[in-house]
Amino acid sequence: MLDHRIAFKLRVSQGDIWGGLLPENAFREIWNSSNGRPREAIRLATLAATTAVEEGHTKITSGDIISAIRRFSNERIREVTGEWTYQFPGIELIVRKMEGWPKEFAFSQIEELVEITHLEIQCGDPGSNLYSWVTGFAGNPMGFARVLLNAEILWIKRSRTDDATVFDPLRPVELTKDRWFAIHPMFAPGLGLVGA
């Protein structure tokens, strides 16, 4: 399916796709950046092909793939946060506050985010009314973390050295101040995370 999509978009034969059209390790990069879902891999490959065409390239370069991954990441941030906007308006603005953060961080960073966001709301900063619901978590940053975990924006780590995993609300890991968190790896390029 991926071959057909690329062949159509770039007007090349299917035999040329993996043997010169895409740079080495392109499939691995596309697959690892697409949450392991075939439809997302196809979408990302299509974005890479579109980027190559826009740049006037006759084949997809590593730079085209990097640009496509960043674009795809930003699109996924908008889509995932869009699914939660009905319950948590302005959640994308909250996620965008994580731009430039380390990919993994201690609970204290969540506490700081809640505190700063709460102050913005209290001071009436422009646009802060869009996420006024955060005020309800001013004294409960752990509850705020749970919102981001349930939305799969954040993943949980039992300790600093543990691997990050998706939070399972049916069998939740106890949330304590010594837990570490990671931003979903698919969002890393869109947020420009440090260490990603």
From TrEMBL:
It comes from the Bacteria. This is Uncharacterized protein. It comes from Thalassoglobus neptunius.
